[in-house]
Amino acid sequence: MINLRAAVKISFRALRVNKMRSALTMLGIIIGVMAVIVMLAIGAGARKAIGDSIASMGSNILIVMSGAHTAGGAHLGSGSLPSLTLLDAEAIVDNCPAVQEVAPMHNGGAQVVFGHQNWTTQITGSTPSMIAVRDWSIQRGRNFTEQESKTAAKVALLGQTVVDNLFGDMDPVGQVIRIKDVPFLVIGVLAPKGQSMMGQDQDDSVIVPITAAQKKLFGTSFPGSVRMAMVKAVDADSLDKAQEQIERLLRQRHHIGPHQDDDFEVRNLTQVMETFQQAVSIMTLLLGAIASISLLVGGIGIMNIMLVSVTERTREIGIRMAVGAKVWDIRLQFIIEAVTLSITGGAVGILIGIIISELVTRFSPLTALISASSILLGFGFSALVGIFFGFYPAYKASQLNPIDALRYE
């Protein structure tokens, strides 16, 4: 019967005799496991950042945009054809069962002034439903009403970045700001949302009634038209159904024939998120595969050192066989040595990988998320490398002829 405890003791003793060689042998495993841990952590962080960014725009969101058109041979892109109207937005809510809310939008950049302070920001004209569509909460004050939206009331909601730059520690609610020299009463402050997926500061914005944006700030060449609308579906499972209902309704309202192209575009943000996450997953897998090459190199290093160890300890192996050691006693001794080297290197690699991931999170714009699965994967890989690359030297040692081994000098 194999004496596992004795085999472990002999293996550890052999590794301690050659500390420097053992440390250098582990280096490949350390680098490989460290690289795998860091790559997986950065990939997980990127996927979470994409998910959080999409979620910050609101849950179950579809974007309906005006169509594109060509002028003078130049393709002007989505939103250049004013085909979407406020009446379209109202019709979507009334006639699409899978839709919960719609927020039409008419936006542009402008300078906002309060006292001696000024700040250039994004002005978004919309309806009161914008807050519900984007899952945005009012930190202080209130939202504007449907009546204020219909009468083009000069009221405004401010994002936190605008508040910080214009008011500092002062409460802006009840104060009057000027947007393009038009006075607006601040009635609320929006809760912070952070950056979007494209790196845009979502708190650097002012929301006003859409009619006020159209009539008093930016104007519109086509009365009642809007540049885009954000649509909130009833739930995540209803997104595809909502998109289908919207497309059918708008084709009917815009009198688009069976073989004619749409004069609008509907984008599913969930599909966008899935596309980004798939791209990140593929990139993470690719980087992880490249990092795993270090594990392969480390495993080859372990096998080479174990073969050298077998040669150096040939006489010892012969003595053990002569006093009754079985084939698997010899094999187990060398396999344990290889596994000990790889697991120890794996543990050190995991520790360094965690430290580097924390440094990446703290000192770079990237976020690295360490998961239990990645740590288990690191341990599993290192153990498998030890068993796989340690088996051949162990097999070779167990096949030595005891008489020849005793004669070896």
Question: Could you walk me through the main structural features you see in this protein, from its secondary elements to its overall organization?
Answer:
The chain has a six-stranded mixed β-barrel with strand order 5-6-11-8-10-9. Strands 2-3 form a two-stranded antiparallel ribbon. Helix 1 packs across helix 11, helix 2 runs antiparallel to helix 12 and helix 3 crosses helix 8. The longest helix is centred in the last third of the chain and has 44 residues. The chain is an alpha+beta fold. About 3% of the residues have low confidence. The protein contains 13 helices and 14 strands. It starts with a helix and ends with a helix. The chain is elongated. The chain folds into two domains: 183 residues, no CATH class; 181 residues, no CATH class.
User: Helix and strand string, N-terminal first?
Assistant: HHEEEEHEEHEHEHEEEHEEHEHHHHH
Give the overall shape, derived from the CA principal axes: elongated
Distance N terminus to C terminus?
30 Å
Share of helix, binned: 55-70%
Low-confidence stretches: 69-79
The major beta sheet can be summarized as:
6 strands, mixed, barrel
Question: Can you give the mean pLDDT?
Answer: 80
> Which secondary-structure class do the elements indicate?
alpha+beta
Number of strands: 14
Rg over CA atoms, rounded to whole Å, is: 33 Å
